[in-house]
Amino acid sequence: MKRFIIYCIGAAATAYLAILYENSLLVTFLVIELLLPVPLFFVAKRTAGKLQVRLLVPIPMADRGEDVSFELRLWNPTVLPVMNADIRITYWNQFRNQKTTKKLTVWADGRSQSCYQYQLASEHCGRLVICADRVRVRDYLGLLSFVVPGEQREIISVLPGLFDFPVEAEEELPYLSGESDDFDKGKGGDDPSEVFQVRPYRAGDRLQSIHWKMTARSEELMVKEFSLPVSCQTAVFLDLHGEAGELSCWETADDYLETVLSLEAGLLEAGSRNYAAWYDRSSGELFRKKMEKPEDVHELTGMLFQVMPYEETVDIEQMYRSRYPGENFAVIFRLDLQCRLWKGGTLYWERVKTGPSG
Question: Domains (ranges, CATH) in the chain?
Fold first, then answer.
């Protein structure tokens, strides 16, 4: 708009001088100044309607503190080049309300694709949203601009760091005497609800376990070996109850997520399979994740990136027992929003501000 006003002032000055001095050259300049913006107007309008802008993230994952990269690709199918295009980039962490806006100026040759690479800092863990929410193409004089339709958005997962959690291995209680939906993949047992394998008869096998159909086919005694049920002996309840100010902006997300994932990594390293459970205020439901292998820590990370603290008081343990009756645990942990870990009602561990994440 500023350039347009200056241009109008310049044209008015040319008109004044042309009338004052009755100079034909000044009249020619005035005609050019008045007519030139018209074709440039239509060229810019057509180019803006044809220009395609794509926002791409080559690697949608980064560690906290690393720079994250993204690309802007412009495809200009028209013959004339785009000399001046302004792209507004807005990015924010979904755990925080602070949005940052940057204005990028790019250009693209006619009938070609241009690629621009940029980097952003990832100071906090969580889901980093990058949005190209406004693209404007200016005419060659920079007087007017036209908006390119469409909005591009990408999400980058900024992973929290892990530290060695001081968790002690508990006494192994891997097998259930009751019913279970999970069975040991390496050992057989006595649960007839699931067949572990069919194998040749061995001395000491019970006659009731003989598989008569397989025996008839193989012409040797074959027996059914039943499965061995297994259980998770530990539960980790994630208590996200917080103050009212934390509901829309979770400032302690870095410390809390690092503590949760470090605790889970420590439990798995100690050989303790467990359930992580939490309440999601957006859906009003209890969620849980079975933790059995290191890959489960990464899956839990993505699930926790979608939750926020809540103000209401929720008894997660009681809610869990109501939803999953009959499940008993040898050890129950509860991690509150102040990064205090409780074990059976007793304070087991507390994170200090000078902890591993600084």
Answer: 36-159 (2.60.40.10), 183-229 (no CATH), 234-350 (3.40.50)
